[in-house]
C-alpha cells in the first residue's frame, strides 16, 4: 500500500515559513483512483510532488508498504520513481529528439529492459491510447492531446504501483481532455495501479473512487470519503 | 546504459547541426593548435639534435672517462694510439659497423692567430679532414675550400675570426700556442677557407685544422676524443650500448662512451624550455576549451531544462542526466579531435611540401631555419586526451548544476516556458509611445461586483479594450524603439524593444555582465542570437526559449485581438473596471496564461492585472505604472516566488522610419549593435 503519513511541507520565503501542506495522511489503494481537489494554492501540486518523491516532505513520510521511501537517498528515490511511480504533468514534456515510441520506451530501457522489448511494450501502450499510427512520427508534430496521451503511456510503461497526474487536462480542450481522462482511468485500472490526480473539475473528481479535498494545505474532509460507487 | 546514453547524446547533437559543428570546430581548433605546437617543438628538437651531432660532435663520443666533465679536460687526454686501437675494435663490432657513417679523432688547440698587425684568439680543433664531410657536414666552408687529407699546415677559420684577422682563402696566418710541454710554438698556416657554424659566438673563434697539424702545433701525442657519426640519429642508443660493451670487453676500462644528448647542453636547455611552454600552452588550451565549451553547454542546458526535469521526474538519477550531457561533450570532443587531427595533418603535409616555414635565426645563431611540424604518436597521446577530458569536464559542470535542486522547481519551469512561448508567437503588439493611453473612457458599471457580465457589458468591455489597443498601437509602417530596464534579483538588464510590421525585435543587455542578446519574432519563427553565437538560431514553434522570463512577462499582455472578454466587474481602480479575459493563443503555440483580470481606471488606462494558468493558478500579478498619459513601467510579481519580482522601467521611446523587409540575421545584428550605442 502506498501512503502518506503525517506529511507536511512548507516553503521558506525570506524569513517567513509558508506552509503548503499540513499533516496530510492518506493511502492510495491499487486499482483505485483518488481525486485531489481544492482552490489554487491549496497544496494539490505540492501533495503530488511530495507523494511522487519529487520533493521531500518537511515532516512525516511517504510509505510504500512498511518502508519510509521519502527518507531514502536521491538515487533510491529516482529508482523508485523509475520502477514504481508514474507521473503525468499538465505540460507533457517530451524528448524532442525521440519519437513517441522512443519517448515511452525511455523509462523502460533505463529500468534495464532490452531496447527491443521496451520499444515493443511502448508500441503496445501507444496503441492502447490510440496512437499506433503516430508511434514513429516526430514528437513535435503531435497535438497537445496526443502528447498528453504519449505522456500517459510513458507513465505506465514500467507498470507503476501509483500514477500521479497533476491537472493532466488543464492545457487541453474539453473534448480532448475527456478522452485523455478516459484513457488515464482505464489504463491505471487495467494496470492495477493507484491513480492520484489533482483537478479543479468536479466532473473529473466524480469519476474517482476517493476524494481528497485540500484547503490551505490541510485535508478537508478526510480522504476516505467516497464520492462514487 | 552507455549505448543508450550515447544514442541520446548523438540524437541531441544532431538536432542542431550548426551549433554542433561550431562547437566541434572550436574543439578542433584547440586540437590543431596543440598538435602544431607540439610538432613545432619536436621539429625544433630534431633540428637542434642534428645541428649538434652533425656539427662535429658526432652521435657518440669516446674519451677518457674523466675527460667528459672535468673542469680541465686537457689533463685527461688519451694517447692517440690508444684511441686509434679502440676505434679499430669498435669498427669491428657488427652492430656499430652497421650504423656507423664515419669517425674522427679530435684534438683541441687554443692559442692566438696573427695576420699582419691583427691578432685573434682561436679555439681550434684538429680533425681528420677526410671524415669531416660526414662528421661535420653542417660546417662546410662558405668561401674557399674544405680541408683535405693532404693538407699539413692549413686551417679553416670561422667567418667572424677571418674578418677580424682580415684574411681570406689562400692567405696565411700565424698560430701561436703553448705546447703540451709548456713551451711556446708558432706555425704558419694557410687559410683554406672560411666556415659558418651558425652560431655567431663560435664563428669568432672557430679554427679547424688537420689532426696532424694540431698535434705538430702542440708538439703532442695525446688527443681528446673519438667521435662516431651515425647514419641515423635515432640509432644513438643502440650504438652507444654496443660501444660500451666493446670497450668493456676489450679492456678499455679507462675509456667511456657518451651519447650526444648528454653533451648538448644547449639542446637540453631548449628542450626543457619548450617542454615547459608546451605544457603551459596545453593547460591554457584546455582551460579555454573548458570555458568556451561550458558556455555553449550551459546554453544548451538552459534550453533543455524541461527535458532535464522530465528525465529526472521519470526516474533518471542526477548522474544519468548529467551523463547525457557528458556524453554529448565526449562526442563533441571526438568530433573535434577527428577534425583537428585531419586539419593538422593537412597543414603538416602542405608545410612539408613547401619546404617548411622560413624562420629567423634563433637567439645566438646567425642562420635561420625552416620550421616544420613533426607530429608523432606522443603528440596525439598528449593533445587528444587533454582535449577530450576538457570537453567532458566542460559538459559535466553545467549539467551537474542543472540537475541540482528540487524537482518541483523543474516542473514549475515548464510553466514558465509557456510564458515565453506565448510571447514568442504573440509578441506585444506595440510598445506605447508618448501619445499612448487615450482610451475609450470609463465603462458605466452597476454597483457591486458583477462576476458574469451581460452581453452589453461585455460589448462595452470589448470596445474598451479595442480602444485602448488602437490608442497604444503605433502608426502603420513605423518602427518604435523602446528602452526598457528590468530589475530583478538576478541583476539589472537593459532592453530595447522595436516593432515594425509583424516583426518584434527585443535586444537586451545584462548590464552587470555586459552581455548582449537579441530575439526576433517574425511570423511563426523566433530568431535568437547572443554575442557568443556566430550565427542566429531559429527557434521553431515547438521549441521554447528559456532563461529570460522577464521580457515575456512584459510582452505577454498584448493589446489586440487576443483579448476575449468573458467577465466584467467593478474594478479595483477608483471608478474603474476589472475585465476578465481569456487568451486566444495560436494553435500549437502554447499559452502564457489562460485568463486574466485586467484592472482599468476611469479613463481606460490599464493599471494592473492578474494572470492565471489554465488550472486557475495565479501565475503573476502586474501593475502598470503611468506617468501622465505615458506608460512608464510595469511591476511583475510571481506569487509563487518571492524572489521573482521584476520591475520593468520604460524610457521615452524613439520612433524611426520603417525599414524594408530585412533578413533576420541583419535585424538581429542591428539589434545587438543598437545596444552598443
Describe this structure in words.
The complex is a heterodimer of chains A (229) and B (677). Chain A contains seven helices and ten strands. Chain A has 229 residues and is of the alpha/beta class. In chain A, helix 6 links the parallel strand 7 (162-166) and strand 8 (194-198). The longest helix of chain A has 18 residues, at 174-191. In chain B, a hairpin with an 8-residue loop joins strand 26 (630-637) and strand 27. In chain B, strands 15, 16, 17, 18, 19, 20, 21, 22, 23, 24, 25, 26, 27 and 28 form a 14-stranded antiparallel sheet that branches. In chain B, strands 3-4-9-6-8-7 form a six-stranded mixed beta barrel. A two-stranded antiparallel sheet of chain B has the order 2-10. In chain B, helix 2 runs antiparallel to helix 11 (265-303), helix 12 (305-314) runs antiparallel to helix 15 (407-425) and helix 13 runs antiparallel to helix 14 (377-402). By secondary structure, chain B is α+β, with helices and mostly antiparallel strands. At the A-B interface, helix 1, helix 2 and helix 3 of A face helix 1, helix 12 and helix 15 of B.
Share in β-strands of chain B: 25-35%
User: Largest sheet of chain A at a glance?
Assistant: 6 strands, mixed
Structural class of chain B: alpha+beta
Radius of gyration of chain A: 17 Å
How many DSSP helices of chain B?
Answer: 18
Span between termini of chain A: 21 Å
Sequence of strands across the biggest β-sheet of chain A: 6-7-8-3-9-10
The gyration radius over C-alpha positions of chain B equals 42 Å
Overall helicity of chain A: 25-40%
- Following the backbone from N to C, one meets helices and strands of chain A in this order, namely EEEHEEHEHHHEHEHEE
Write the layout of secondary structure elements.
The complex is a heterodimer of chains A (229) and B (677).
Chain A: E1 2-13, E2 16-28, E3 33-37, H1 44-51, E4 59-64, E5 67-68, H2 74-83, E6 85-88, H3 100-110, H4 115-128, H5 144-156, E7 162-166, H6 174-191, E8 194-198, H7 202-206, E9 210-215, E10 218-219
Parallel strand pairs in A: 3-8, 3-9, 6-7, 7-8
Antiparallel strand pairs in A: 1-2, 1-4, 4-5, 9-10
Helix pairs in contact in A: 3-4, 3-5, 4-5, 5-6
Chain B: H1 2-15, H2 17-57, E1 60-64, E2 78-79, H3 80-91, H4 94-99, E3 100-115, E4 118-127, H5 132-135, E5 141-144, E6 154-158, H6 159-165, E7 172-178, E8 184-195, H7 200-203, E9 206-210, H8 211-218, E10 222-223, E11 225-230, H9 236-249, E12 255-259, H10 260-263, H11 265-303, H12 305-314, H13 318-354, E13 357-359, E14 369-371, H14 377-402, H15 407-425, H16 455-472, E15 478-488, E16 491-500, E17 503-510, E18 515-522, E19 525-530, E20 537-539, H17 549-555, E21 564-570, E22 577-582, E23 595-600, E24 606-612, E25 618-627, E26 630-637, E27 646-650, E28 654-657, H18 664-676
Parallel strand pairs in B: 4-9, 6-8
Antiparallel strand pairs in B: 1-11, 1-12, 2-10, 3-4, 3-7, 3-11, 5-8, 6-9, 7-8, 13-14, 15-16, 15-27, 15-28, 16-17, 17-18, 18-19, 19-20, 21-22, 22-23, 23-24, 24-25, 25-26, 26-27
Helix pairs in contact in B: 1-13, 2-11, 2-13, 2-14, 11-14, 12-15, 13-14, 15-17
